[in-house]
Amino acid sequence: MSKKKPSTEAGAKAEPEPSPVAAAPTSPAKDAGELRCELEAALKQLEEARKLLAEAQSKADGNLALLQRVAADYENFKKFAERERSEAVLRERSAMLIDYIDSMENLERAIDAGAKELPPESKLMKGLKMTLDLMKAGVDRSGVKPIAALGCQFDPTLHEAVYFVPDPSKPEYSIAEELRRGYTLNGKVLRTSKVCVVTHPAPARKEPECPKDEKEA
């Protein structure tokens, strides 16, 4: 009795089912047109990004320039304020020194007048002279110096001419008399000197001589 061959369908091992991932259909290759569109879109986005970057850079440059101008204006304001403060202090100091000098000169004139009636060795005269010396020392410590005038050439930046006197024996435009002493403060004029200035008389004007023939006529 012949044996029956086992059925190939029954004897064969069952094949494994394909996995879902492996079974997913692969995406077809993109054609040149689609790639060109994507490239153009990417280039467009890049160009827009460059424009935004340029605008941001321009705005940043403008802000930097504005900040620099504000900083420069602030520095100029600080210098201006410091200069104004220094000038105001100098004006106030000059005004106080002028008042102080006026008082010192009044005391000096009082001493000159008192010397005609009081003996120079009197206690009052000694006290006044001591006070005058202290005032002069204080003026000198402040940087105040008297302006040379008598016998010097007239200088309009230092001297104020009150009147002129003709005197051929002295140099023209020299100072013949000091009416009020002038002073400088640290090299700058604090008060001009009032002076009398020498002038030379103009030479006599000669009448033109007439020709002989005109005289005879």
Can you describe this structure?
- By secondary structure, this protein is of the alpha+beta class.
- The protein has a domain at 143-203: Nucleotide Exchange Factor Grpe, Chain A, domain 2.
- The chain has helices spanning 8-11, 20-23, 32-114, 123-141, 212-216; strands at residues 144-146, 159-166, 175-180, 183-185, 188-191, 193-199.
- Strands 1-4-5 form a three-stranded antiparallel sheet.
- Helix 3 (32-114) packs antiparallel against helix 4 (123-141).
* Lateral strand order in the biggest sheet: 1-4-5
Strand content is 5-15%
The CATH H-level homologous superfamily of the domain at 143-203: Head domain of nucleotide exchange factor GrpE
Radius of gyration: 54 Å
Helix content: 40-55%
Query: What is the strand tally?
Result: 6
**What structural class is derived from the secondary structure elements?**
alpha+beta
Protein topology:
Blueprint: H1 8-11, H2 20-23, H3 32-114, H4 123-141, E1 144-146, E2 159-166, E3 175-180, E4 183-185, E5 188-191, E6 193-199, H5 212-216
Parallel strand pairs: 2-6
Antiparallel strand pairs: 1-4, 3-6, 4-5
Helix pairs in contact: 3-4
Short structural summary:
This protein is 53% helix and 14% strand. The chain has helices at residues 8-11, 20-23, 32-114, 123-141, 212-216, and strands spanning 144-146, 159-166, 175-180, 183-185, 188-191, 193-199.
